[in-house]
Write a structure and sequence with these properties.
Layout lengths: L1 H12 L6 H10 L6 H10 L5 H25 L52 H9 L7 H18 L15 E8 L10 E8 L2 E9 L7 H26 L10 E3 L3 H8 L17 H4 L1
Keywords: Metal-binding, Zinc, Zinc-finger
Protein name: CCHC-type domain-containing protein
Organism: Lolium multiflorum (Italian ryegrass)
Length: about 290
């Protein structure tokens, strides 16, 4: 540490300016392994100190390191094992330890019941009837482990063969996407706008739906229903492309059915010409004529 201090002073006398960060890094890298904890704490706390302050901190750390070293030297003791005569070794003669007698195997209890003949006083393995039937071939020993393993293999084979199949509970017999559209004319008394909505149903469940206020003012219920059907047709185009890419709906290539409860809106959607009463409707709502 004193050497590094002398080098830093010589460089400053020669007019060479060393950045503070570079000098601190050089000092920390030159420290011995005993300063490992100090370097770790300094980097973790991100201390921005000058070199004189760092040297003062190192002096304090050096004193603490010396104290810890002295404590370790005092507490370090050597344990001595008391030597004595080994027990049980180099004995020429001696009595062996007495071993307890082996208890004879007991037979079945008087109330023990045989699982084969249902009589008491013996077990199945000692049953004369079971042994006679086993010898004659009427009874075979079961290998439950192999039977269970065979059953497991059959189940795994079934799952492997049917991994591309699926079951469909309830709903329609065939997967078909159906859409319903509706509109409520002049529902908002403040801005006189209508409410439109649609829902797409697959196998009896809704998969896509929306309900929102129309951005324009419709002059009649036919016009509001026509706008709602146009918005539903735009969603139907995306829905059809999605189910085609999905590849699980057999009727994906068939036309998608949209139900509307207004005959005027249906007639205007099927009319290729522009009627004078529909000139004020925005052109984007007439896109339904291309989708039908």
């Amino acid at each position: 540490m004193l050497t590094m201090t002398g080098h830093a002073k010589k460089l400053s006398d020669l007019g060479i300016v060393i950045p503070n960060r570079l000098g601190i890094n050089r000092v920390l890298q030159s420290l011995p392994p005993s300063y490992k904890n100090f370097v770790m704490n300094y980097n973790m706390q991100n201390m921005n100190k000058e070199l004189p302050e760092l040297f003062a901190m190192l002096k304090s750390a050096e004193i603490e390191i010396k104290k810890e070293h002295q404590v370790l030297m005092v507490n370090k003791t050597t344990s001595f094992k008391k030597q004595g005569k080994s027990k049980g070794k180099n004995k020429k003669s001696g009595k062996k330890a007495a071993t307890p007698p082996v208890k004879p195997k007991t037979g079945p209890k008087p109330d023990a019941e045989c699982y084969y003949c249902k009589e008491k006083g013996h077990w199945k393995r000692n049953c004369s009837k079971y042994l006679a039937d086993l010898k004659s071939g009427l009874v075979k020993k079961k290998k439950e482990g192999m039977e269970h393993w065979t059953t497991v293999k059959n189940i795994l084979k079934y799952l492997k063969r049917t991994k591309d199949m699926f079951l469909c509970y309830g709903g329609d017999q065939e997967l078909v996407v159906t859409s319903y559209t509706d509109a409520s004319w002049n529902t908002d008394p403040d801005d006189s706008k209508s409410q439109s909505g649609y829902v797409f149903i697959l196998n009896g469940a809704a998969v896509s739906w929306a309900s929102s206020k129309q951005c324009t003012v419709a002059k009649s219920s036919t016009e509001s229903e026509y706008i709602a059907a146009s918005e539903a047709s735009s969603e139907a185009v995306w829905m059809k492309r999605f189910i085609v890419e999905l590849g699980v709906v057999p009727s994906a290539l068939d036309p998608l059915v949209i139900y509307c409860d207004n005959m005027g809106a249906i007639a205007n959607a099927q009319e290729p010409r522009s009627h004078k009463r529909l000139k004020h409707i925005k052109l984007r709502y007439h896109s339904i004529r291309e989708y039908i």
